[in-house]
Amino acid sequence: MDSLLLILNSFKTVFSLLLSFWWVYLPILLFYIAYFSLLNYTSLKYRLSLEWVLLEVLIPKEVRKSPKAMEQVFAGLHGVYAIPVRWHQTVFKGKVPDWFSFEMVGRAGETHFYIRTFSKYRNLVESQIYAQYPTAEVIEAVDYINDTPHFLPDDKYDLWGGEMMLSKPDAYPIRTYPEFEEKSSSPEDVKRIDPMASLSELFSTLHPGEQIWIQILASPTGDGWIKKGQLEIDKIMGKIPSKKGDFLSDMVFSIDKAISSIGSDPEAIVKREEKKERVELSPGKHEILKAIEKSFDKLGYETGIRFLYIGPKDAFHQAHVAGVVGAFRQYSSQNLNSFKMNKYTLTFARGLFKASKLLTKKVAIFQSYKERKLYTMGFVRYALNTEELATIYHFPDVGVRSPLLPRVEAKKGEPPTGLPIM
């Protein structure tokens, strides 16, 4: 009884303090409410003003190019980046950096490649694709998402999905396409293992009504990710950034250092400081540093990845999810980086109210995929360079023999210039 009275008195004291000092916290609270309300309003208004187009790329019958060609496409699309979006543009206009959505879809056993972009960038996307894949076809497509119910899961269909994230800071690169190539005695004879083969084969096993959607959202970015990566290099090398203290602590530290150096050999002090800063690196760490610094040579994109498996409830094969996760495991490197599932978005739940929590997660990931939003609260974004992006999104080469991989049999030609019109 005494403890209950003590708790009630504590609540009474807190409540009285809140009433007494409302003039301190209430303006701050109202400011934050107004700020986030304005941010949500301007963001929604900006998104509704955007004009999008979904382009499907029909890949050539014989692609004899490595993913290096797709890397050139990503490098060309990076040209939409000019200057960073300023804070006042975000707050008062709702503006965010421009982004693309690169999508791989398996439906009815077929593999489809889509690029969703702003209408104003359509010509840029088409020109970059045709520059590297002259015999491909780029057509405007009806959004495949519209072929599904507006809300999933429902009585007929179930889904399973989530978001992919990196297991380490994004300064550490993933395994990229040059590591999937084996050079023989002849420099021109290159044996290439296409990581797209596993996804294409997985898509070809889908039954009617089953779909797998993979969405790679990418926004060209500046060199901020390189500056963050330099901090990771400093950590590996043992260069811990010094924390700035206040004037009093700095003065005390200087006096202590001066007293301890009395009677000591100045050269010995310098050597001791140099030895402290010098860290012996193992061969493995040397290789890590080389890989990180090499990745800085490429242009960067702020990236996020989602995927969904949709299927009839009476024939729902959750094993297909393992196939998608396994396809992303190909890019793993034990010393560097790898992809893993974001457990907070994974359509899995346990404990109390399991069914309710699971339904909430499924609805959330489906809506997030439909809206294709990159800059949204809670969505994990990370930097990938053009080589990494080209590794996980490129058109399968001629070695991928998936039976239901649509390819262009013949290229449509343009009429000759100067042709008389009747």
Task: Report on this structure.
Strands 1, 2, 3, 4, 5, 8, 9, 10, 11 and 12 form a ten-stranded mixed β-sheet that branches. The mean pLDDT is 82. The protein has one domain. Strand 6 and strand 7 form a beta hairpin. Helix 3 runs antiparallel to helix 5, helix 3 crosses helix 13 and helix 6 runs antiparallel to helix 11. The radius of gyration is 28 Å and the shape is globular. 41% of the residues lie in helices and 18% in strands. The protein has 13 helices and twelve strands. The longest helix has 28 residues. It has 422 residues and is an alpha+beta fold. Keywords: Membrane, Transmembrane, Transmembrane helix.
Structural class: alpha+beta
Number of domains: 1
Overall radius of gyration: 28 Å
Q: How many H/I helices?
A: 13
Give a brief outline of the structure.
The protein is of the alpha+beta class and 422 residues long. It has 13 helices and 12 strands. The strands form 2 sheets. Strands 1, 2, 3, 4, 5, 8, 9, 10, 11 and 12 form a 10-stranded mixed β-sheet that branches. A two-stranded antiparallel ribbon has the order 6-7.
